[in-house]
Amino acid sequence: MQQENEHHSTEQELIQNRIEKLERIRARGDNPFKHKFVRTTTIPEAVAAFTKAESVASETPPSQQATLAGRITALRCHGKSTFADLRDEGGKIQVFFGIKNIGEEAYAALDDIDIGDFIGVSGPIKRTRTGEITVFAESYTLLTKSLRPLPEKYHGLTDVETRYRRRYLDLVANPEVREVFRKRSRIVGALREWLDSRGFLEVETPMLHPIPGGATARPFITYHNTYDRHFYLRIAPELYLKRLIVGGFERVYELNRNFRNEGVDTRHNPEFTMLELYEAYQDYNGLMDETEELFVYVVEKVVGDLTFSYQGEQVCAGRPWRRIALHDAIREFAGIDLESTRDRDEAARRAESAGVEIDATLGYGKIVDEVMKERVVPHLVSPTFLYDYPVEISPLAKRKPDNPALTERFQVFMGRLELCNAFSELNDPIDQRARFMEQVKQREAGDDEAQHLDEDFITALEVGMPPTAGLGIGIDRLAMLLTDSPSIRDVILFPQLRTLD
């Protein structure tokens, strides 16, 4: 505790020292929080232009004048000269402040400049005698005074909890983290490119739902004062998107947030991003082909190669991907047969014989799902389609014509991550009502993740929905895979965390 107090007092002393500098700056008539600064170029552009000019020059290239801006990340004082590292979003450059170049008064004012401050600087770009590309400052301007020292004197922020809780410090201290989120943005852009080029229309549907639906999950509940009723943060946009198919749109997608009041771990965050798309006149077989094509397009666009590393293992996204029925995969990897029985207790015994602990409240479908998660998914490093899921855990999917106990549903796994869920959409309103009523029974029996009966959606199906296939892709997990990130928190800028007491 004493050590913590000493650290705390030291930090407070540093902050107080910066506040005193702030007051001196203001006393000189300078505003330490400027409104605007016009730079002529970014640091990477300035370095690239200098390097290009240098490469074509027969002798020493002429110096290039530039006005740059960024955050100071290092300061090295040598009497009448000072060197600084200046960093903007794209790169870093050295700055040389010489007393002869900027004058005694401006040089003395450098005493009030700290690591973390934002400055603008103007001067020629040249190489030093040691060969480093450098701005030889002729003038500088303090743009923003930093009142709090950067983490670990800018040598990196390694404490995971602090990195997630104060992402702004993580981004400042660890430039590679910024690259993760740039790549995530490219992933989203590539998905949109592929969908837009194939005639899909991007739409927006409600975040507040009067009835939670479209997925098996526990919702967050909120209250609307004017309507005097409870609403639910959406767990999925599915039922609204399918209403659009009923209304005449044939290809739609939405890329937005879902909210599920569930556990938090390396693969789950209560607020997450999903892409959902729906295509009329398509089934799950055709959608498998399109899903494979979409993923290959995104991987090539973002990674630049179909082979990449995820958590120390090589993943090859090259086509064709393996396709295996769920029950066949359970036989292959778990060594048991759950297809030949529909009896819940017998299925539980077989699952436990494979080393899977089964809760007494789980029904047949969830037993199959539990065995899949524990005994099958850990083997799925290469891209794999699992298909044909039990109807009990697929309340919105069409039954297989030749086996009504199964549905036309598939999921994609890669790098041991579940990346998407898809199926031929159930468009029979009578069957859909029966499925909903079975879900209601499960809710009444204590399953608070079971789905609600949505009468308006049944009404929409009664109007008529054409044959349709739908797909949902977890953007956060896809970002984990393509950025080689072990935790979902590494690819969400501001993940949900417990409140500090």
Give the strand content.
25-35%
Largest sheet report: 9 strands, mixed
Task: State the end-to-end distance.
Answer: 17 Å
**Total strand segments:** 20
- Domain count, please report it: 2
The helix-and-strand class reads alpha+beta
**Share of helical residues:** 25-40%
Under CATH at level 1, the class of the largest domain stands as Alpha Beta
- CATH architectural grouping of the largest domain: 2-Layer Sandwich
- Please, what is the average pLDDT? 93
The radius of gyration computed from the alpha-carbon positions, rounded to a whole number of angstroms, is 29 Å
User: What would CATH call the homologous superfamily of the largest domain?
Assistant: Bira Bifunctional Protein, Domain 2
Number of helices: 15
Describe the secondary structure blueprint for this structure:
Blueprint: H1 2-27, H2 43-56, E1 64-78, E2 81-87, E3 92-98, H3 99-102, H4 104-109, E4 118-127, E5 133-136, E6 139-144, H5 160-165, H6 167-173, H7 175-197, E7 201-202, E8 208-209, E9 221-224, E10 229-233, H8 238-247, E11 251-259, E12 271-280, H9 284-303, E13 307-310, E14 313-316, E15 322-325, H10 326-333, H11 344-353, H12 364-376, E16 384-390, E17 399-400, E18 403-414, E19 417-424, H13 429-444, H14 455-463, E20 468-474, H15 475-483
Parallel strand pairs: 3-5, 7-11, 15-16
Antiparallel strand pairs: 1-2, 1-4, 2-3, 4-5, 4-6, 8-10, 9-10, 11-12, 12-20, 13-14, 16-18, 17-18, 18-19, 19-20
Helix pairs in contact: 6-7, 7-9, 7-15, 8-14, 10-12, 11-12, 13-14
